[in-house]
Specification:
Blueprint (H helix, E strand, L loop, with lengths): L1 H14 L16 H10 L6 H13 L13 H37 L2 H16 L2 H14 L12 H31 L2 H8 L4 H39 L4 H10 L3 H29 L1 H8 L1
Helix pairs in contact: 1-11, 4-7, 4-9, 4-11, 5-7, 6-7, 6-9, 7-9, 8-9, 9-10, 9-11, 10-11, 11-12
Amino acid sequence: MTLAVSAVSFALLARAGGDAFTALRDNPQISERTIEQLRSVYGLDKPVATRYFRWLTSLATGDLGESIHFRLPVGDLVLSRLYYTSLLGGTAVFMAWFVAAVLSYFGVRASSRNFDRIIEFVILMTASTPRIALALFALALFVATSQSSLQIRSGSFASFIISSFILAAPLIALFTAQANSGLRSAMGEDYVKLARSKGLSEPAVIAKHASRPALNPLLTLFGLSLGGIIGGAVIVETILGWQGIGDLTVTAVRVRDVPLVMGIVVVSTIAVWAGNFVGELLQMANDSRLRAEALS
């Protein structure tokens, strides 16, 4: 899969036209000969197929090349930025799961139409509000507080929490809808009724018996949501100035740094695949039937 994604990405970059040194032609102090020499040094004068084969050969040895713009090893640069995006994304997933768990739990306990309306409102608002609108609102908030004692600086803890919430917004809708539906469905099962007949308290029934079957779909959504987190990070990080892989992607595309773009594509693809794999492991840990199927 990584090979197919890298081939398509490389072809699209080549079709876009230009390269990292195209902008130098606007500088009258730099000659065409100098530009061509630079292109030759980085192999940009070679056919697309030749460049891709060379890049693929280097990738097979674990070398992602050097960033033309930053003059740093691509692997080190991408991994350092991926760490900051992972912090942001991990916090966003935790927020989404926490909100979904709390709302679903109290929704089942309350069995109230008014509380159901609250859940529906939360799902509607978080699903229908684009991340870019939330990010622009947060940016306006940062500017509005810049001259006050409540100043929110880019990179601060407050900025981190706000950025994580913006990244979490669509996940809150997705996880809450699934958790609420799954938990309500589980509460009507025979094993839950049996647990009640044994005299267990309602919180114990929900925590020990109803929550586990309702958890599996959420673990599936966790794996599927990782691609959306990385995509959303491009918007959130660019607008709010968080130095993660999303911000790096925008810079790499803007300056046409092909080695860096390809490094981001490869690392992001592997990260999404690893996240889905972790999600499957968590499902097996939660459901003994899946463990039995995997071992059979």
